Model the fold of this input.
Amino acid sequence: MVDTKQKITQAATELYNTYGIASVRLQQIADLAGLSIGNLAYHFKNKEAITLAVVQDLTGEVKDILKMFRQTSDFLDFDRQLSEWFSFHQRYAFYFSDHTPWLNEELQQRRVQSSSRLICQIQKRFDFHRKRGSVKSDMTAPDDRAVAETIGMVITLWPSHRRLQGQSAGNEKEYKKAVWSQMLPYFTTRGLAEYTQLIQPLLSSTK
Done:
């Protein structure tokens, strides 16, 4: 059963996703949560406190996604992580697209650290799959970093970019195709065969 605090943070998240943090008023959150302003204020003293609770919740989810690293030795490992990233975008569309200053330096630093960790993981994936013979061996460390940053941007910004262009956020398969397309040029023959066998069926299935 959803408690009152959860109702409030869920309502705030929905409104932030639609209008952005700065444009949402406390009354709107109370109305959507089905509460009076007085009842809302009993649980959160102001909008900043609500936003802090929302960001703390989603920060925990980001940590969980980043823990999904090299759980298997094939490409399916990364594909599963992409599924979680897409679900995260669906729940917290505002997180990567809203440029409203965060509540404090600590929260901003958490977002920077998460982004850096994602890029580092992508670099490590390239190195791991290179050793397996699935990624080309002629990439240098700077190449790895540049490619990892590009892929990281697609992972974090693709849905927001689509919305900016007046399009829908797309579906999970479209999202994954956009990310995988950045990686395909660096696969060896073995890597392409593995992609064709393991990943392509998932992206082309009708389920």
Q: What stands out?
A: The chain has a mean pLDDT of 88. The radius of gyration is 20 Å. The domain at 1-45 is CATH 1.10.10.60 (Arc Repressor Mutant, subunit A).
